[in-house]
Design goal:
The chain has 482 residues and is α/β, with parallel strands linked by helices. The protein has 3 domains: 224 residues, Aldehyde Dehydrogenase, Chain A, domain 1 (3-Layer(aba) Sandwich); 187 residues, Aldehyde Dehydrogenase, Chain A, domain 2, CATH 3.40.309; 27 residues, no CATH class. The protein has 16 helices and 20 strands. The strands form 5 sheets. The chain has a 7-stranded mixed beta sheet with strand order 10-13-14-9-8-16-17, sandwiched between helices. A hairpin with a 2-residue loop joins strand 11 and strand 12. The structure holds ligand TXE. The site of ligand TXE has 28 residues, from helix 7, helix 8 and helix 11.
């Protein structure tokens, strides 16, 4: 079967600003019910939601395929990862977010102290098109498990996938609309930012993240941003080169390179570089690209992305880089065949800017430390991979890489691990989705102290005794000054 993929023809309603606000108002009602449930009840609903998605996933997979052009197996994998996260969030919210006591410390020994993580209310989620189920689920699942209602604006390229998710929730017949979708483009996203949501989770480009942040700043609406990356893969001289090249091929070319934490740069130690490039070449040269069922990756989902890829390849070649697989002729919109570029100047756009296509740059380095240094020179800082047989080198790289996620001897290792927080630094964004940090990201932290007995020292009073101040002075100098 050849898929009828045409984002231009994917039509969905574009709600007015008033309609977006009305959705948020409905969400606020839903949040009252949902937030008041205990963790066990919410877990029940979310696991039911999970089962519903899994049982009826065939139509979701078809929708993802139609809207993005990715192969069916990739769509299936994406849905599987999404329900894995939904499951983790549902099952771990109580453990992570239930009230916990903390030691009050010496000065406040007469108090019981505790921390509560309360729902924020309504979370707005603005999603991308490259993984239209998995990526937003990283916010939806964790926000809902933390007791919030969600209004989700999927990318304008994947509105039906977004609507499918809200319909799946609605089919559970929950008494309130805990998950709703509003479709439309950036204007609708902007309306969502202005709608009074209590938190905004954004995934997309850094440039749009800045616009979202500026609008959210008007109302001090907190945001979490996943803004893409320029992830490096480092190959040490001790690495298993077969494994490194095989994973690199997947990390760079999988999903047509349209993966925020995909491999875009490879730094390989000089002495093994030729051998590594030979193996990588053999892994990517004959990949099947297209819309056929057996394609290994599909077309570029965002039409304008083709021009970005072409411009970057052109720049790399003009500045002395060499194409060892493909070249400018590989860009044949709406497809891009695999491109491997060698020895590309570090300040060219192919190395410095996000490509988001099935291309990868391989540059040689003296040693792993130089690889780390070059990896860290990027304005982005989402993820990185390192291939080495040395445990010490792996540890050093994991410590020193300026990124949010590190994978050793594989790629994208974090993706299916619900317990691992995900997010970046620099232009890749801030805040975390997934894991305990992801649950807390969508919670309001409240600190509570309860006085259990009168303080031995009367310091919180307008009528302090000289004796109590003298004891405080003694504490300051003798205990803290030790
Ligand atoms: O992103 P945008 P696009 C990168 C990738 C790609 C580039 C552009 O490099 O080339 O981003 O892709 C909504 N207020 N990534 O154009 O514009 C928009 O409707 C509020 C990285 O798709 O960032 C969509 O839902 N919302 C990436 C979402 O923002 C606005 C995933 C993302 O759109 C808005 C995808 C506005 N003013 C692309 N303008 C990743 N981080 O994984 C747009 N939107």
């Amino acid at each position: 079967m050849t898929v009828q993929h045409s984002p231009e023809r994917t039509t969905a309603p574009t709600p007015s600003d008033g309609e977006v606000h009305a959705a948020v108002a409905r969400a606020r009602d839903a949040a009252l019910w949902w937030g008041a449930l205990d963790f066990t009840d919410r877990k029940g609903w979310l696991l039911e939601f999970r089962s519903r998605i899994a049982r009826t996933s065939a139509s979701l997979i078809d929708t993802v395929r139609e809207e993005t052009g990715k192969p069916k197996d990739d769509a299936l994998l994406e849905v599987m990862l999404a329900v894995e996260h939904l499951t983790w969030a549902a099952k771990n919210a109580r453990r992570v977010l239930r009230e916990r006591s903390v030691h009050p410390g010496l000065v406040s020994i007469n108090h019981a102290a505790s921390v509560r993580y309360q729902p924020m209310g309504v979370v707005g989620v603005i999603g991308p098109w490259n993984y239209p189920v998995y990526t937003p689920m990283g916010s939806l699942a964790y926000a809902m498990a933390a007791g919030n209602a969600v209004v989700f604006k999927p990318s304008e390229l994947t509105p039906r996938t977004g609507t499918w998710l809200a319909d799946a929730w609605a089919s559970l017949a929950a008494p309130h609309q805990v998950l709703q979708t509003v479709t439309g483009d950036g204007r609708v996203g902007e309306a969502l930012c202005r709608s009074g949501v209590d938190k905004l989770a954004f995934t997309g480009s850094t440039a749009t993240a800045k616009k979202v942040m500026a609008v959210c700043a008007e109302t001090l609406t907190p945001i979490v941003v996943e803004g893409g990356g320029k992830d490096a893969l480092l190959v040490d001289a001790t690495a298993d080169l077969e494994a490194a090249a095989t994973f690199a091929a997947f990390g760079a070319m999988g999903n047509a390179g349209q993966t925020c934490a995909g491999v875009e740069r490879i730094y390989v130690v000089e002495e093994v570089a030729d051998r590594f490039v030979d193996i990588l070449t053999s892994r990517v040269r004959d990949l099947r690209v297209g819309d056929a069922d057996d394609a290994q990756y599909g077309r570029m989902t965002l039409p304008k992305q083709v021009d970005i890829v072409r411009d970057q390849v052109e720049d790399a070649l003009a500045r002395g880089g060499r194409a060892v697989v493909g070249g400018l002729e590989s860009v044949r919109a709406p497809y891009v065949d695999p491109i491997v570029l060698l020895d590309v100047p570090e300040d060219s756009s192919a190395v410095a800017e996000e490509t988001f296509g099935p291309t990868v740059v391989v540059n040689r380095v003296r040693d792993l430390d130089e690889g780390i240094e070059r990896a860290n020179a990027s304005k982005y800082g989402l993820g990185a991979s390192v291939f080495t047989a040395s445990k010490a080198a792996a540890e050093r790289a994991a410590d020193r890489l300026r990124v949010g996620v590190v994978t050793v001897n594989s790629v994208l290792g974090f993706a299916a691990v619900g317990a691992l927080p995900f997010g970046g630094v620099g232009d890749s964004g801030f805040g975390r989705i997934h894991g305990a940090d992801g649950l807390r990201e969508f919670s309001r932290v409240k600190s509570v102290t309860k006085q259990r007995f009168a303080a031995p020292l009367g310091l919180v009073t307008m009528t302090r005794k000289r004796r109590d101040v003298a004891v405080a002075r003694l504490l300051l100098t003798k205990v803290y000054g030790r």
